[in-house]
Amino acid sequence: MRDFEIPGRSLVMSRTGMAATSHPAATLAAVNVLQRGGNAIDAAVAACAVQCVVEPGSTGIGGDCFALLSRGGSAKIIAYNGAGRAPVAATAEWYRAQGYTAIPRQSPHAVTIPGAVDAWATLVRDHGTRDFGELLQPAIALARDGYVIAPRVAADWANQEALLRGNKDVARTFLPDGRVPMAGTVHYQPELASTLALIAEHGPEAFYGGPVAADIVECLQASGGLHTLEDFKSAKGDYVNPIKTSFRDYEVFECPPSGQGVIALMILNILAGFEAKGDPLSADRLHVEIEATRLAYSIRDAVLADPTQVDVPVEWLLSEQLAQELRSRIDLKRAMEAPPAYMPPNHRDTVYITVVDKERNAVSFINSLFHPYGSGLVSPKSGVLLHNRGQSFVLEQGHPNAIAPRKRPLHTIIPGMLVRDGKVQMPFGVMGGHYQAMGHAHLLTKVIDFGLDLQTAIGLPRLFPKPGTNEVEVEGTMPQETRMELERRGFKLVSPSWAIGGAQGIWIDWDTGALYGGSDHRKDGCALGW
Questions:
Q1: Residues ≥6 apart with Cβ < 8 Å to 163
Q2: What is the value of pTM for the model shown?
Q3: Is the pLDDT of residue 442 over 80?
Q4: What pLDDT is recorded for position 342?
Q5: Omega before residue 392 within 30° of 0, cis
Q6: Which of 24, 68, 140, 339: disulfide with 364, CB 3.0–4.6 Å?
């Protein structure tokens, strides 16, 4: 039971429907859709569109999208990959010939063809009940009429001031009056409002063709980008087969590669061999979680890539043989030396949305620009902030994740779905770029192994071993005795640049019909239900 003398949040409890997002305006938009008769996918898309306006550093229509969906709470999980692809002209050889050793962030080369708008429209067409254009109206109104900047959004905005000053169009949009707006400021995005209105009227074709696509392509080509109108016209997401593993009495579903959901499942497979007891923040328990994460991530950066272009050994990655081998390397007396790994770009911005409706349709939905404010490029006429997901490609010849024509990069954003006894138990997700795979495993083991309620589990202090290093980021709220013991065992603890990640989830109690929602205090958002 929660100690009500300690600051924190209570679980949100309801019966009919519920939504949880990282921004109150988005949660409210989702609940409004549900109360007007829309279903969970309708509500998730409406919420995401709102977040593309009110959390501009975290997500946007110039980003990518993934989703897991259950109809009526069934264990038959539907997965959708809305990741964008590289331009047809993009090859690793071309970049090396131009002198690139890595893809720079604030450049057109960091931009793959955004997949979000196509994903939204496809999911609403196939699984929704409302008109796609209707679902965009709350976002259009906020972009046109203004929205109040929330505290966490303002903090992320200020952290990216240097990036925002690096491009005149992004500066004009996000540095009104030449400075970073403070929390409580009303902000407007009229160009984005017009673009959303075009999409609402004409569908995704208005984004992938016509003046919007022309504006984006012209913007990218002017800076040396290889994108063409044909690249945009041919953009299309895919339904894919979800992957899963068993953890205790549950099944955990994730989207398949090129996303890192398989890494979350690998971490759970390793943890399944360790008894969970005592304090979930004990040095012994966190030692195991750190090492399981380091081992899984070292493999991630070597093999994860677009499975339509290279062979990704998913069966081997999820095998008990591999889990046992990795588990055997963990020594609770001392930290292992950092496994060799490719150093991926650092954190991290994304929004995660979960919705459950009265029919118990359940949606796990994630949309991202990758880094805060993505590439720091805005198309001038359409107001589209473009992501930097292309930075996840490598330029090394022969590497599975080397950039290639129409290839998708390794993706960090991963929606999750927990199933038990043939029914969905919990749609859930954890924001935070590279942290997300560990975040999924960390959250689930706290709920399943230690019996914590969802909100308590979300609120626990977090840590994250940075891939390719022997440093472990640790939030300041971690108990001092745990920190001291981890340091004694050889872990190099460092402070994160800001709070690690963010999470939402909705637990379905099939016996009582109740819904229990949790939302992360590290963000501005909330869970709401009725």
A1: 105, 106, 170, 372, 373, 376
A2: 0.95
A3: yes
A4: 36
A5: no
A6: 68
